Amino acid sequence: MTSDPIADLKGRLVVSCQAPDDSPLRCTAIMAAMARAAERGGAHGIRAEGAADVAAIVAAVDLPVIGIKKIRGRTYDRVFITPGFDDAAEIAAAGAQIIALDGTPRDREGPDDLPVLVRRLHEELGVLVMADVDCVASGRFAADAGADLVSTTLSGYTGNEPTPDEPDIALIEALAAVLSVPVVAEGRIWSREHVAAAFSAGAHAAVVGSAITNVVLSTRRLVGGLPS
Q: Which residues, 6+ apart, have CB-to-CB distance to 5 below 8 Å?
């Protein structure tokens, strides 16, 4: 791993090693093992949630780690991905080189708006910032706030419409066309064709989670194809 995580991730796959609280896989040791398996399979980065998992994964792999802290019990209509400075500081102390956070212009709790929060993460923690967004307007807002990367993580989750089943390739393409910062494709990437489409649309990197590490959800999708 070089000293430039963004360069490390260019044209590469990031695997999100997370498990819901009610999953049989919800164990820090299992998340670290998943990260090692992803590294062996060719992943060039890991996304992880919570200080314990981040620290274990940083110790387990020689890859850039994108860290987040989720505020439990919140739904997508509220900011819950690394909402404040203290949340980010906890993840940075665990060893994450990149902090991912909600990059939408929605109201945030605490004294810092997004530009102030990004500046503090840069200056006080010395970490890079990846902004999870839901639309082009949010992407512009996050880039103007100083985010180092913009990710499509929240596409399909913050509005009132049903969440699509496919990745938002159109948003990836639109963001790549108007932003000067790298665009990361994330959300509902289930196949190698989806990965290829994301990069063709201009993605700098692609994050895949459920298709690899959410065994319960992946199994349910396949079971759905069984004859009735």
A: 45, 64, 97, 98, 128
Confidence of residue 3 (pLDDT cuts 50, 70, 90): confident
Give me 74's structure tokens.
């919140």
Position 186 in a domain: yes
Q: What is the CATH number for 32? A: 3.20.20.70
Looking at every residue in the chain, the average pLDDT score rounds to 96
pTM of structure:
0.96
DSSP sequence for 162-200: PPPSS--HHHHHHHHHH-SS-EEEESS--SHHHHHHHHH
Give the total number of structural domains in the chain.
1
DSSP at 50: S
Confidence of residue 133 (pLDDT cuts 50, 70, 90): very high
In a domain, 25, yes or no: yes
**Which residues have C-beta within 8 Å of that of residue 151, sequence separation ≥ 6?**
100, 103, 130, 131, 132, 133, 183, 184, 185, 186, 207
Structural domain harbouring 129: 5-217
Smallest Cα–Cα separation from 178: which of 145, 216, 215, 141? 141
Residue with tokens 């260019």: 10
- Separation between Cα atoms, residue 43 and residue 81, nearest integer Å: 23
User: What whole-number distance in Å separates Cα of residue 138 and Cα of residue 174?
Assistant: 12
